[in-house]
Amino acid sequence: MVDRLSAPHRGPVPFSVEFFPPKDAEAEARLWRAVRTFERLGPAFVSMTYGAGGSTRDRTVRITGELAAQTTLLPVAHLTAVNHSIDELRALVGAYADQGITNILALRGDPPGNPLGEWVQHPDGVAYAEELVRLIDQLGDFHVGVASFPEGHHRAPTLEHDTRTLVNKLRAGAEYSITQMFFDVDDFLRLRDRVVRADPEQGAKPLIPGIMPITSLASVRRMAELSGSVIPPDVQARFAAAAGDGAEENREAVRAVGIDFATEMAQRLVAEGVPCIHFCSLNFAKATSEVLERLGVDASSALGATVG
Which positions are catalytic? Predict the structure, then answer.
């Protein structure tokens, strides 16, 4: 996957997109509309998330395989250790390999039901993402990435501990990392600096920022809460002013601010030399495409009738 980051691209830096497995036929149709739009825009890769405890495991494997077989996109499959034995993890990696998927994002994952709850290791599983990276590496010629956390993982006692954890995952064989969604570019830059200081060799590997064009204040607040992330007060105030004081937030105004804010973040990240920008799309194409358009990517012909 990493070689895609140095291939020719349409904007100032390559971009990538995160999808999640749809829950029903209608949502799956919406996903595929977004897929076809992004396919025309040429992302470096796309990733498919994996539900806590494998709750979307079969759907994840199937749709990621379809992305590999039916599109020109390069899919990266998320794989978590939650509630899986080592034998099950081996079988899942094999299922991906059978569908021609060799790019995997190795994650310890969140506890099912309550992402901020106690993490319990499967008695026959692995305890850390570092172990999962090593396991995948033993199973064949795979390209493995891991997660990183600009604010520090909510379970990490200190930022230094969080940095060591990321460095250890990279030393275990991960080729790159993608960050959790964040709202302050300085947090990302400080993370990048910490990794370089801790291990210059690992710090040279791509650290890809993950951002989301916000279209609903209520939704992003909930997502931040579940991930242990923090929306800075000034950012909260900016979106709250757009949302208004009514019983229902002003979605059109929030969306406009969300596109502006994502564009501002992306522009600064580009200026800071990031290797790629990873967009959390929520299976819609339009909002991300509008940000890309502002970054210099001609997205107008690809948008068509998509909404998001």
Answer: 18
